[in-house]
Amino acid sequence: MHVAAAALPCPFCTATFPFDANLSRHIARFHVGAVAFDTPVARRGPRQVPNSVGAGNSNGRHLIAVAGNTGPDDTTAPPAVRVRSVASAPDAVNCGGGSTAAGTAEGDGVAVGARVVARGDACALPMSLSRVRHVFQGTTSALVYRYFLGKGDVARADALVPLLRQGRPTAYVTDELKAIRMFALSTGGTGLSEKARADYYNSVAQTEAITAATSETVILKMEDELATSSDHSSSRSGDSSSDGPDTSSASTAPSRTRRTKKESLRKRLRKAIADAKASIKNVKGPLTSAFPTAAAFVASLKGEQDRCLSEMKWQVTHIVDGASFDFFFRDIMDVAHDAFGRAANVQLRGKRHVKADGSIVRSSSLDSDVYLVQEADVLKIHANAVHGGKPIKAFAMAVQFFSDATLLSWNGSNYAYPIRVRFPNIITGKMQWLTVGYVPVIKCTSEDGAEKARVRLLRDAVFQRCLAVLMHRFIPASQYGEPMIVPGEHDPVLAVPRVVLYAADQPEERRVLGFKLSGCKRPCSHCLVGKQHAACRGPKAGARDVLEHIDLQLDAVEALEDGAGPARLAQIEGDSSIVPIIPALAAVHGLGTGPCCLYQVFGFDMLHVMKLGVLRVVAQKVPALLKALCKGGLARYGSVAKTIVAMNERIRHFGRLIMASLVAPGYLVRKGVTQATLKGRQWRHGIVVWAFMVAGLIGRRLPGSRDPCFVSQRKGRRHAAGPRAGRRGTSSGGTPGNATGGSHDDYLEDNSAADSEASLPDRGSRATSDVGTDDTMSGGEERVEDVPVQEAAETSEAYKELFGDRPMHEAVLYVVCLAARLMGKLCGDNEPENERFTDDSALALQKEAYDFVCRYVAVLFGPIHTTKMHALAFHLVDEIFNRGNLVEADTSVNEALHRLLKAMFEGTNKQTTSFAVQMLRCEQTLAHIVAEDANDKARAAVGLSPRLHDVAFRPDVSVSATDTAPDLDGLRRPEGSEHSSASGDGRRDDESDDGSYDEHPAKRSRRLAGSERRRRRRRARVRGRRVAVADLIVKDGGRLKEITSLLGVNDKQHLTVANSQKFEAVLGWRHTRLDQHIRAADDLYRKSWYDFILYRDAAFPGVPQLGPARLIVRAVDGERRDTIIVQRMEPAQQRQNCILTEFGCRRHKWIINAHTGFPALAAVNVVDVERLEHVVPDFEDLCERHGLRGTPATIPDTPTERLRQRYFTNIFFPWTSNSIDELPGDGQS
Q: Which of 818, 808, 899, 892 is nearest to 853 (CA)?
């Protein structure tokens, strides 16, 4: 039966129809792609603004639907979808928007019974997935949205804090009380326990009582002293006052505020003491006045948790799927309103940056392709949006998501699974991720395979339902928008949220999208590449079709709910690698409709793809290749096992600047050796020195070779005590080592059983997955170590095409240098501040990554079919175009935020059923209070009164790490060492007051006595230790003997030397200076530390000189010098066809002083120092002369050896790197 309506207009064009059936047929034929959610039958009357999504919304936020041209007679409006019903029975729910009785709604010409009811509405019954589509249920995203609405998870949501405990004001209103609150909630990272809070209250209360009593005692003593000193004068003053007429009252009455001239100081003191005694009797401290007892103080802190959580609108719902799981969450739109209300600077419009030559540049999400495409879609739909009878400005609110599980307890029993969001439109200069939910963690009850499969599917289903609950208002708002108040705009703007990034590792990415994690034919989430063709040479595979895959997942879920078996599910799956799970993100407009960017929002995770993925694979392949090459023989300088250990031992001689891991067995280990768990930061800084670790080692020993060869005898069990024989054996053709160097020879000998070519039995090395590296629950390990390394033939055509006639050890060094250079480009090492990606630079970087993976690695190590290698080779340029940078998708920032959760977990009861809410309460309360206190301080700084519930002002809480004081002499002078400070005198803190640091005390006294107006010369305090010049001359065999002539001192004088010196480094690739520290000490943190520096020398204009700092002189006999004593170096002859030289490393040698036999010295002023430089020994040269065990610690320190020593500068060392703080942006809305 059709409902008749006169002239029903089409909501998408100007056509009108007499019956709704005609309108339905018209929309199905011409506008099916534009239908979003349940569009009701058109109604007569004026245009009505739809109700807000979610019952009980007190903020007055409405959804606005705009389709085509709008006018006063348009009758299109989205339906009001209820979140939950307050009625106890279905028949008590008002489904018509008016009275619950049958009839016609007031002001509406359509009967209540004719209203279209969305499945999942509060007045609709629970339902399962139905593939029957009505014309008004149009798109796939609408069906996904209603599927999750039908689960009823939103209807079961309730506030985390009960209503009776909400709305209570805070008692911490003063700065003192806020400081006490912060101390109690943040001490130790977890805050004080209840007992510690009570003890803390008692201590502070006792201190306040003692302070009050002490003040009263002081006042009484002052009163007694005043009375005693004025006995002889009080009577005389009384007699004189009685002789004359009493006119004091008459003279002082008219002007009480003005003090009479006859009132003496003694009278004023007596009056002040009397007032102080009257006010101190009942005085209390700030803590005891606010909280009379310790119990009240402890209870108030619990009340602060309730207040903060209620203000943040935390809720809890029960996800029912066989069992009930608690999901704690905040509505994303509520979080967005609060974040934008507190923001200080926002950017509402994206902008395409174009250079003068027409090339496009990208730097952030707001000028990326994904955002600009979705922004164009938003502006097209909402170009004529109206709110309150006035046009409203619309903008695309970019939202970034992150989710990942993290291990909390050492025994692996407790996990936390947070979901965080970020809003790139808020310009803060740093990553600000806000926690919006904690997904319940589901565990297997047994080790049965069927149970694991069931729990795996249940985890994915529960996760998608949790994500749908978070986005209950977000999904409709992505189509219709929500009015929002933002800074810089006088009127509300229409915020249309769009997802531009989902930062996750590869297992989490597959879970969110509903793809198989293991055993899949299509391992990539972005394209349809096959498993055996991933990371292989050839054209790029076709992209995945969003709607096609979502339809397959809908079919699979429907079949699963109907009881279909594995055969039917496998038939639906085909080769798409889907699982019967519907991704909730597909319901978001822009992801499942319009531009369909669902698969594009998942970014290139630098942490798991490059650091924990590609670098780890290369580190495993290098020793495997060495073993394959040397099968049946020896390596170039010894056995395979000794070579691998010596290769990892080199990292200990690369100086103190590196941030790589020094934990044995190192980075490059054989299969069967358990490797230490290394963090992403350690892998990232390890690749910086790998080239110098492998230099000259990876290759077989050729017959007739005269290179030194170290082969130790296999040791048996020792039966007698005595010195260990052969601990420092002599290399063939080399020099015996000395007793220094800290070599791990014990480990080398204990693991030397592989000197023969028989492989060690597998002792269960860790799989190359994300498991154990970042405490995730990812189960998608890719066992690349099981793939045999091919024996790369130096005579093969593919090898000659890439490496020509180079030997194998040079080819391996070349590939490792390629990896280090590529890693530096991906991290933005040593690049200008505002460096942006252009189309040409992005394509060039993609080609370099493709050649590295598909050509060099494939030829040298064999093809590696992993998703991480494939992502690097084929999808790097997509990330640059879709994100504008390689920083925002990096999960390192969120992995670092997990540390706070782990700290808060220590303060819980560790019970599986309750620790999550305890951890949530502590962590979110502290976060809210920190933001609240920063807001109050920022308002006070600009002269505004602090407000507890202010949402229209957000402080800029970023604080500079260093505050540079203006220079006194107008010159760029150093701040001094790490322990330097400023003072008015020239003495050290640890020196006696003997005037040794005062240059001319007599002259200074005469100057001060002669003219007080003359400016006194200000001197900075010089810290350091006082050393006699005579001791320095004979120290270290006379290495610093030239110091007397360089500084113009004699052996009777004393120097003030320091371990470090701060200076402003001049970087050739940046305009701004960078603070660095020069360190030169024999013992600094239990080891020697001598930094290499680049400095300017007048004898070599325009050519920076290089050398290690040996001594930092701050003063000579109290006179400030700030001079660095440097050992001089000069360029050395480069090795023939040197790989390191091709990549930019420079070779140097010592300039030897003929009289001392040590390197020549130079005195360099601190202002002439340009920057630090990382310098490493030429280990290939050392191996050629001293064999496998030749290191700077084992070779003799003789004049002849110093003449032959060679060093390389490290071109790969990251002095500056890209970060979220340095992303360029105009900040204009």
A: 818
What secondary structure letter does DSSP report for 608?
A: I
For residue 1184, tell me if it sits in a domain. no
| Domain boundary, last residue among 1122, 1150, 1173 | 1173
Mean pLDDT of 19-27: 78
Per residue in 669-689, pLDDT tens?
A: 988 888 888 999 999 999 999
DSSP symbols for 836-889? -EEHHHHHHHHHHHHHIIIIIIHHHH-----HHHHHHHHSHHHHHHHHSSSSTT
- Is residue 392 located within the same domain as residue 506? yes
Single-letter amino acid code for the residue at 255: S
Higher local confidence (pLDDT), 188 or 88: 188
The pLDDT value given to residue 16 = 83
Beta-carbon contacts of residue 1046 (< 8 Å; ≥ 6 apart): 1125, 1161, 1162, 1163
In tens, the pLDDT along 857-877 reads: 999 998 899 999 999 999 999
The answer to whether position 845 is within a domain reads yes
Instruction: Please report which residue ranges of 970-1012 form alpha helices under DSSP H.
Output: 1001-1010
pLDDT digits (tens, 9 = 90+) for 157-198: 999 998 888 888 888 988 888 888 888 888 877 788 888 889
| C-alpha count within 13 angstroms, C-beta hemisphere, residue 326 | 15
Cα distances from 168 to residues 247, 303, 307, in angstroms, run 58, 8, 7
Q: Are residues 861 and 899 in the same domain?
A: no
Question: What mean pLDDT is predicted for residues 775-786?
Answer: 45
Residue 231 included in any domain: no
| Domain end among 1173, 1206, 1221 | 1173
Q: What share of the chain is helix, strand, coil (3-state, %, to 5)?
A: 35, 15, 50
780, two tokens: 């998608």
1136 shares its domain with 1099: yes
| Total domains in the fold of the chain | 4
Asked if 816 and 927 sit in the same domain, the reply is no
* Strands 493-503 vs 394-403: parallel, antiparallel or unpaired: parallel
Range of the domain at 1108: 1025-1173
Report d(CA 219, CA 427) in Å as an integer: 55
Q: In what order do the strands lie in the sheet with 1087-1090?
A: 1060-1065, 1074-1084, 1087-1090
Compute the average pLDDT of residues 531-536.
91
Which residues fall within 8 angstroms of residue 1132, CB to CB, at 6 or more apart?
Answer: 1147, 1148, 1149, 1206
Amino acid in position 1078: I
The DSSP symbol for 637 reads S
Is residue 470 within 8 Å of 419, Cβ to Cβ?
A: yes
Q: pLDDT grade, residue 838 (50/70/90)?
A: very high
pLDDT at position 263 = 63
Phi, psi of 730 (to 5 degrees): -90, 130
Identify whether residues 207 and 342 lie together within a single domain: no
Q: How far apart are CA 463 and CA 401, in angstroms?
A: 14
pLDDT at site 947 = 53
pLDDT higher than threshold 60 for residue 299: yes
Phi-psi group of 235: left, alpha or beta (phi > 0 → left; psi -120 to 50 → alpha; rest → beta): alpha
Q: How far apart are CA 943 and CA 933, in angstroms?
A: 15
* Report for 188-192, 350-354, 943-947: range of highest mean pLDDT: 350-354
Sign of CA dihedral 133, 138, 144, 149: negative
